[in-house]
Amino acid sequence: MAELLKNMTVEGFADLTASDAPAPGGGSVSANAGALAAALAGMVANLTIGKKKYEEVEDEMKVLAEKADALRRELIEDIDKDSSSFNIYMEAIGMPKDTEEQKEARKAKMQEGLKAAAKVPMECAETAAKIFEISEAVVAKGNTNAVTDGLVSAMMARTAVIGALLNVKINLGSIKDEAFVAEYTAKIEKLEKTAIEEEKKILGMSDLSDKLY
Amino acid sequence: MAELLKNMTVEGFADLTASDAPAPGGGSVSANAGALAAALAGMVANLTIGKKKYEEVEDEMKVLAEKADALRRELIEDIDKDSSSFNIYMEAIGMPKDTEEQKEARKAKMQEGLKAAAKVPMECAETAAKIFEISEAVVAKGNTNAVTDGLVSAMMARTAVIGALLNVKINLGSIKDEAFVAEYTAKIEKLEKTAIEEEKKILGMSDLSDKLY
């Protein structure tokens, strides 16, 4: 098995992304953006904990730091999941299609692959969308010296959510299961709205970024 | 000297960001976002080159891939530059301040540090802003199978530019050199406008994302 993407160097990951290798692409990059969004939100919480000036929010910041930690770990794993989900579909493409039976089996496997390739970025988008409440809380109550880190966190989370959803959408177009498509379409709309509104709200909380939108 | 951030693993970089270590923070993360934006734009160009269907744009794609390559390399270096620029200021903070002379020298060094800490993310923002023309061209004329990668590229570039500029702004507030501040303020406004408008334009080019804004 090839080296996991999460174990590549920052530079190596960017280099491989740029190449014509099938993975990593926008899906893995979105998961990486989400992991960094969670990391920045957690960093602001960690820079607030233990400071006399922020004693009152210490307990809240500890909870936020732990939540951010869990989201970061999950999104780091999503970097590799996104690439491996793609493989089921590629396997299906390579299946024999000589008899009607084989054709049906191949089609079914392709549908399975497409659903997996939609499910993985959907989970990534759902996970990344949970970062906003942390970014918002740390920008509102966290160490003001790190406010820009909280703002960048919100921007990275928006990119992670919408980027992952683009990868859901592109697969959704070929999925025949109408109930699946309807369920996912509703989820997409809700998550896109959340990502855009939450980021806007958080950027509006600092005079460094409140004129942007 | 500590390990360069670009040589850390993707996971290790995210972990260190989350910690209360002074670096990496939003500045380095923005540079990383820029590098990934350039990587994705380059990837779409590379997935277009050599395909019969896209023969007509082959030469253009080769030029775009090379440009994206150069921007990615520059932005990868910016990940570490951002953190090291911070050190001049931290050194100044530690300088003696017993005599008037020492106080003046310390103040001057602090101003120097602040200017460096504004200059590095400004260069990062300027570099990342050059990605949009590549994202736009690959979304418009590149391999349509990779269109989502081009769209994620535009979103990552927007986050990179605005994120880097937040780090310029936060330092600008303490810089006494009025000409420097005026020059930088004008640059910031222009780059912010570019980032927001370009991303919006590029997202509007695909029916996967044209309803977002």
From TrEMBL, chains A, B:
GO terms for molecular function: catalytic activity. Residues 9-189 form the Cyclodeaminase/cyclohydrolase domain. This is Formiminotetrahydrofolate cyclodeaminase.
